[in-house]
Amino acid sequence: MSKFRFLTSGESHGKCLDAIIEGVPSGFRIDEDYINAELKRRQVGYGRGKRMQIESDKCEIKSGVRLGYTTGAPICIEIKNKDFENWQIPMSTKELDLKNREILKLVADKSFTKVRPGHADYAGAVKYKLEDLRDVLERSSARSTAIEVAVGAIAKQMLKEFSIIGFSHVTQIGNVRADVLPQSYTLLKESAEHSELRCADDIATDMMKEAIDDAKSDGDTLGGKFEVIFGNLPVGLGSHVHWDRKLDGRIAQAVMSIPAVKSVEIGAGIDAATLTGSKMHDELFISDGKIYRKTNNAGGIEGGMSNGEPIVVKGVMKAIPTMRTPLKTVDLYKKEQTEAHFERSDTCAVPACAVVAEARIACILIDAFLEKFGGDSLKEIKKNYEK
Predict the structure, then answer these.
(1) What number of CA atoms fall less than 13 Å from residue 125's CA on the CB side?
(2) pLDDT at site 53
(3) What's the domain count of the chain?
(4) CB atoms inside a 10 Å sphere around CB 5
(5) In the prediction, which pLDDT does 50 show?
(6) CATH number for the domain that contains residue 26
(7) Dihedral (C-alpha) 192, 198, 199, 202: value to the nearest 10 degrees?
(8) pLDDT of 2 higher than 60
(9) Which helix (H) or strand (E) holds 285?
């Protein structure tokens, strides 16, 4: 039985970002252009920083795909970091002669010991006994999500073979909420894709852009909220029999571990606290032998399993902690009060976070799908699916 899983490697300013994907059966068509289009979706958005002007992410499939189709072997994919040209000495993987003053200066200029509140700096340095916080920053950076979006693009192409499609949209930036949203998922998706902020409410989008501009001029940052929806899923993905097989738990972990995400909701989410049982739970009806529901407060998941309704996941991204107006902190080397280190940053990256969440959820869904209908080839899986 196939199990879709992957490992990634790479640093923010290192040579490249890589992933090895295991458990992809043979026969799936993989389009590299589609992967690159998904990478572009992650990079665009109002409020992004200068890094997006440097990088134009392109993925290269290194193995596991032949003549456009998966072979059943592990897939290796890579994204080269263009900015590495400017970081070859400080991010060298080889031991350097630090007695050479030129080399020492290049390394020292990129090293820092001033903790950035809200980042992994302090805990990472203590855990791994690191003196240079650069060693924490490079791997904990949200740059790592680029390769995850590429992996998610492969998962999405696999799901499309079974007409399972997902999308995301932004519902809040700072204090500005989207109120006028299309009721149709098709219109919602189209409107979000044509928005600079992935927001389907045009009036709210303009107000969000103003809020981002204000934060940028103040040297501050903004967070927000997004929603991811996947439709046309079969009943029974996941399981009720063990806690770690429950689909909602797996999705929540996948989204919660995205850098800067602080809250995950499924379906009604936090609003469930205010709903009575008669209002919360989705009644079932039958017509011409077909079972259907009029509401989806469960977000497509009951008892840890998909119930046939669209899966609806909401995530909250905190304001980015790297700010031009630095917060108070401590220098770990000098052991004194100071201000946080600043590194090139976005003002708002909620739309990008939504795209990353799409990718993460797609990986969970294809894993659960293969768990239920799995085989060694697409032909075998389709036979199992159509039974």
Answers:
(1) 17
(2) 57
(3) 1
(4) 13
(5) 61
(6) 3.60.150.10
(7) -80
(8) no
(9) strand 284-287
